[in-house]
Write a structure and sequence with these properties.
four-stranded mixed beta sheet, 374 residues, twelve-stranded mixed beta sheet, 3 domains, Nonspecific Lipid-transfer Protein, Chain A, Aminopeptidase, binds coenzyme A
Amino acid sequence: MDEVGVILTQSFCDQEEIWTTYRERTGDENFRTLRDGGEVVAACAILPCGQWFGGRVVPMGGIAAVGVPPHRRGRRYAERLMGEAVREMHRERIPLSVLYASSVALYRLAGYEPAGCRMIHSIDLRSIAHRKGEIPFVPVRGTPGEPVRAVAAERGRRSNGNVDRDDRFWVMLTKAIQKQPVFGYLLGSEAEPVGYVFFQQERKEWGYDLVVRDMAATTPEAMRALWSFLAAHRTMSRNASWPGPAVDPRLRGLAEPVHRILRSELWMLRIVDLRGALEQRGYPASLEAELHLEVADDLIEANNGRFMLRVRDGRGVVEPGGRGDLRIKIREMAPLYTGLWSAGDLTAPGAPDPALEEADRIFRGPPPWMADPF
Ligand SMILES: CC(C)(COP(=O)(O)OP(=O)(O)OC[C@H]1O[C@@H](n2cnc3c(N)ncnc32)[C@H](O)[C@@H]1OP(=O)(O)O)[C@@H](O)C(=O)NCCC(=O)NCCS
């Protein structure tokens, strides 16, 4: 672990105290290393969690802290480490894996593909009207409990791609390793929660900006109250930023937002266990559909071949065999599965194809995004 610490501290230009906290939060058991002649030449972490798709949580391995020491780079160590990590997750029956990539090419080699986003939005707080609201705000201290988690679960059910946070992810959200403290508020009451916000204050030459780490509201009134709460900082604070999807439906409630996108981050997803991924996610309750796939996967033998996905009553069942109407690489399945791209986006334009239409009926949904960086 000491060697891992040296590699990661150097790879990410971190201070040593950051590594100490990061190691504590991640847990030694979640780090993986690749050695050559006894020397650690590559490291990463696999964070077990879940991800919401179609109203259900699918187990997911979040890949973080991938590093190779500079004098060892360019020898395929990272590629081998990622291959082993994917094989391990498959053995452990973890159907999905997600990461934020510094190089798309590297992770494509292991079957990952950009499949969702984390856009950082920014708004001029003076463009939000501040109204005294009726909904109470209750400060949240320490790791959030059930009421906040219930709001997050409600948001997860209605959207695609967000992490189903366990204690580790809630700590990562609410206790920043660096910089300013994180302030948290629950909207509504413990018995009837309707939203939450967690944010930091980033000092500017004059005053500070609000850096929202995550916010969620389960009703339009709660969302208006949240905007109003942010606007109440505007004597000292000019802008607020927050993570969201590319086009954030939360902006709908504002009359004239002065808004822009500060940063765009794509996350990559790997379908590790095809059958588990298709059977554990949810689908629209009214949908009845059948898709015949022929899948190719260089790394995981069990994902290869023909499969039939039958969707009914919000659930999917996979059986081997079928006609193989939609021929697809495992990498291309990722943005189809999350709903980032339509089946038509993934293929060359051509005549209308019933298999592509069927795939779209099954997988199209709210655009996939994620609030949590890791
Ligand atoms: C990114 C990193 C882990 C790559 O390690 P590595 O062992 O040198 O990578 P590999 O030799 O296995 O590379 C395999 C393929 O990945 C891609 N790749 C690797 N490094 C890349 C880079 N810096 N830029 C673009 N593509 C890269 C290439 O396609 C490469 O194949 P090629 O050499 O045939 O072109 C290493 O450069 C590193 O530790 N960087 C600093 C920390 C970091 O960025 N971590 C990743 C965070 S997501």
